[in-house]
Amino acid sequence: MKNETSPVAATIGKNRSGSNGGSASLPDTEATPNTPTSIPAVSKDTRRRVITASFIGNFVEWFDYAVYGYLAGTISTVFFPSSDRQTALLATFGVFAVSFFVRPLGGFIWGHIGDRLGRKQALSLSIVLMSVATFCIALIPGYGTIGVMAPVLLLLVRVVQGFSASGEYAGASAFLVEYAPAHRRGLYAAVVPASTAAGLLLGSLLAALLSSVLTAEQLNEWGWRLPFLLAAPMGLIGRYIRTKLEDTPAFRELAAKETTVKAPAFAMFRTYRRQLVIATGAVLLNAVGFYVILSYMPTYLSEELHFGAAESFLATTIALVSYIGFIFLTGIASDTFGRKRMLLTASILFIALTVPAFMLLDTGNFMVIVLVQIVLGGMLTLNDGTLPSFLAELFPTAVRYSGFAVSFNLSNALFGGTAPFMATLLIGLTHNQLAPGWYLVAASVVSLIAVLFAVETSKKPLQQD
């Protein structure tokens, strides 16, 4: 790769004695390989602060992003004509999907910033954009007040949200993997999907609370705006924490050697096309499964199976609590048994069990629905808890952010963001309530094939160039 150094990279190379300085005597401390301008060792305390910053920042972004999905039924009433309920719901999920189409572009831009200027720089900017955009949703008047401008403004703000989110997951994962001890990269990276699920959990709790204590009229008039208003203070807290950290040892070593690349995305396409294809395919199960099981499910239960709104949210909330615990177990398991084995197991389980699980949802029994969601969520964690470390390990440091961001966001744009829309559309076209389950099975088959062509990455050092 060409020796190209950015101004920020040069600054990092000159200022190496910041808050990351730790004691080499700590059992969990690892020194970065010696370079002409040596990077300090990483202490346990530094790693704890990195985990906290990554968790809180990702939590804030995905709470902001998920609230829209949980309040989709109410948002469809507020922002679209209510003459046809399914059409309004499709329009709401259409806006949800369109915001994903900007994510591949965002993946290139955030990947460039993260690989060229540093992971910290990209993550600090993305959380500000997300928080401002989410706060603005709370301020948009409804369709009854400004007519067609209401969904237009909603769409514009959602596009900004999508652009912001495209840099968050990949950046936080790369940040944690590059700070983690070599034998714990899977566990450290599992913090990212765990924080994502925690953001969803808070969104689900707030949606359940609002649905329980407010009348339908109060929820439609002003209640739905409350979760979006939380975005501003939460975003400021997340940004403050992130600005107090130094960039990762891997990136600082790259900058010190003056081997950052001027155009990371072009370098990625030129040299790592095979990894990019494998990564994009491996993400497909995660993309569809995440948004069907964790975001769309309350709407599916209430709108398609006519379950109570409060009970639908409660079932999803219980499932999310178990999901967070499973995520960390999966991270540990992936460090022990390998990334490839975990990802293959997830795909096989979804192919075999998804449709029977959706059949059980139609029983109308609350305990059965909760158990089914816990099982589906546990299956998804085998993929979701492994994927961040797997994707980060596929690419070398110089293009890691770009490779992760482009593959992750491309798959999510085409199949993740469209999953609620496709699920609703397929049910309408086929009159079959199992259609979302079959859609998830198809995604699992593609992921299975992609992972079969991957090599195991967990037992190897991170690629440097």
UniProtKB/TrEMBL annotation:
Pfam families: MFS_1. The keyword Transport applies. Keywords: Cell membrane, Membrane, Symport, Transmembrane, Transmembrane helix, Transport. It is a multi-pass membrane protein. Residues 1-41 are annotated as: Disordered. The keyword Membrane applies. One of its GO terms (molecular function) is symporter activity. It comes from the Bacteria. The chain crosses the membrane at residues 50-68, 88-110, 122-140, 186-210, 222-241, 276-297, 309-330, 342-360, 366-383, 404-429, 435-455. Residues 1-18, 31-40 have a biased composition (Polar residues). InterPro entries: H+-coupled_symporters (IPR051084), MFS (IPR011701), MFS_dom (IPR020846), MFS_trans_sf (IPR036259). Its main location: membrane. It is found in: Cell membrane. GO terms for cellular component: plasma membrane. Residues 50-459 form the Major facilitator superfamily (MFS) profile domain. May be a proton symporter involved in the uptake of osmolytes such as proline and glycine betaine. Belongs to the major facilitator superfamily. Metabolite:H+ Symporter (MHS) family (TC 2.A.1.6) family. This is Putative proline/betaine transporter. The lineage of its organism: Bacteria, Bacillati, Actinomycetota, Actinomycetes, Micrococcales.
